[in-house]
Amino acid sequence: MSRPPANIPKPLPTVLWFHGFRADALAHAAELERCARAGFLAIGVDAVGHGARADSAIAKRIARDGGALPLMLEQVEQTVDELPALLRALADDYQADQASVSVVGISMGAFLVYRAIAADIEVRSAVALLGSPEWPSATSAHLTPERFRNVAMLSVTAEHDVSVPPPAVMRFHAALIEGEGATRIHRHDVLAGAGHLLSAAQWAQAMSLTHDWLAQHGT
């Protein structure tokens, strides 16, 4: 957790930052510090089975289930289930403004962003990087585009990403544009020449887009 300087008024706009699969919240300490300097209460969230509560059997489960996706989606659902209690605790103990919550996620974390909004977690702005709003279950976020109408939604994909190809995000943002009653901004940016693993320059570009979006729409 990173807190803004003491002279920032309360209650505090809040950003929850979700990491990728088999990473943890500490992987984004620099980004959290940058958010805190911008005036946010910045919270890195360890997903279920990760970080301080890592699942020691994760490799065996991936092999057993024929890949990472089923386990990842299970952990996404379990983590989203925890968010209402987390947000209440942040409001009670750290003066988080529940009306000014933003969410950012990378890879698995982007799936978390899409799913949290689809699950009616109240979010003002969101950034989903290198993830998809489509997955093979009834909880797939692309099935409920109306849940995104009041969210400032930025999706960032990589042009040559073979792990999470951009077309699903393109379809989703087309549906958001076509939907009725949209009152927030929706945008999709593509990192030219990039794959799922970004270079330092590509990561810097993605973070610039992210922090600019939070500054514009997160408070």
Topology order in helix (H) and strand (E) letters? EHEHHEHEEHEH
Annotated CATH homologous superfamily? Alpha/Beta hydrolase fold, catalytic domain
CATH topology: Rossmann fold
- Total DSSP helices: 6
Strand arrangement, major sheet: 2-1-3-4-5-6
Number of domains: 1
CA-to-CA gap between the ends? 18 Å
Q: If you compute it from the alpha carbons, what radius of gyration comes out, rounded to the nearest whole angstrom? A: 16 Å
Q: Can you tell me the CATH architecture?
A: 3-Layer(aba) Sandwich
Strand percentage lies at 15-25%
Overall residue-averaged pLDDT value = 92
Instruction: Please mark out the parts with pLDDT under 50 across 5 or more consecutive residues, or reply none.
Output: none
Give me the secondary-structure category: alpha/beta
Helical residues, percent = 25-40%
Largest sheet: 6 strands, parallel
Count all strands and give the number. Answer: 6
- Overall 3D form: globular
Q: What is the CATH class? A: Alpha Beta
Structure description:
The protein is an alpha/beta fold. The chain has a single domain, classed as Alpha/Beta hydrolase fold, catalytic domain (Rossmann fold, 3-Layer(aba) Sandwich), CATH 3.40.50. Helix content is 38%, strand content 19%. It is built from six helices and six strands. Strands 2-1-3-4-5-6 form a six-stranded parallel β-sheet, with helices on both faces. Strand 1, helix 1 and strand 2 form a beta-alpha-beta unit. The longest helix is centred in the middle third of the chain and has 26 residues, at 69-94. The radius of gyration is 16 Å and the shape is globular. The chain starts with 11 loop residues before the first strand and ends with a helix. The model has no long low-confidence stretch (mean pLDDT 92).
